[in-house]
Amino acid sequence: GLDLLxxxxxxxxxxxxxxxxxxxxxxxGDIPSITTFDLPALxxxxxxxxxxxxxxxxxxxxxxxxxxxxxFREAVVGENYFDYVxxxxxKQALMSxxxxxxxxxxxxxxxxxxxxxxxQIFTEVLGVPKRGTEQDECPNRLLFADVIVHTSDYMExxxxxxxxxxxxxxxxxxxxxxx
Length: 179
Hints:
By secondary structure, the protein is an alpha+beta fold. The chain is 26% helix and 29% strand. The chain contains five helices and seven strands. The chain has a seven-stranded antiparallel sheet with strand order 2-1-5-4-3-6-7. The chain starts with a helix and ends with a strand. The C terminus is likely disordered.
C-alpha cells in the first residue's frame, strides 16, 4: 500500500517514515508494534512525529515531536487530539482515524491550516498504524510525520488546497485518491 503513496510524498520526514515503516512491515510480515518499531531508524524525522493511542474513539497524544510542539505549544502527552480540532472537523477526523485502524492502512494528507495565532501553514502528513504490543491483533495507535511544507509556490499550493485532500492506501488498493 505504501508503494502507492511514496512517489507522492515530498516532505523528507514523511518519505523517511514511509521507507522505515515499509521495511519493518516487510521484515515482520505484519504491522509493527510500538515495541518492535525502530524509532532510531527515523533519525531527524523524529522531531516531526506525533503518535496517538486511540481509546474508545479518543486519540490521545503518546509522542509529540519537537517541531510539532513548536506549532502547538500546549500539546502534551496524554491529552486528547480532538481538543485541538475544530468541532466541525472532529467527525471527519475520527472517520479517517478509524479507517486507518479498522482497515489497517496508511493515510497521507496535504492540509492548509490556520493556527490560533493566525499563522497560515500548509502541511504534509503521513500516518501509519501501529499495534500497542505484538499480542494485539488490531492496531490501536497511529504514528504520523507532520511537516510544514515550505515552497516558493506557496500561494499556488494554498489555492489548490481545496482540491488536495486525503489519499488512503490500503494493501493492494487506494480507498480515496485525492492527493
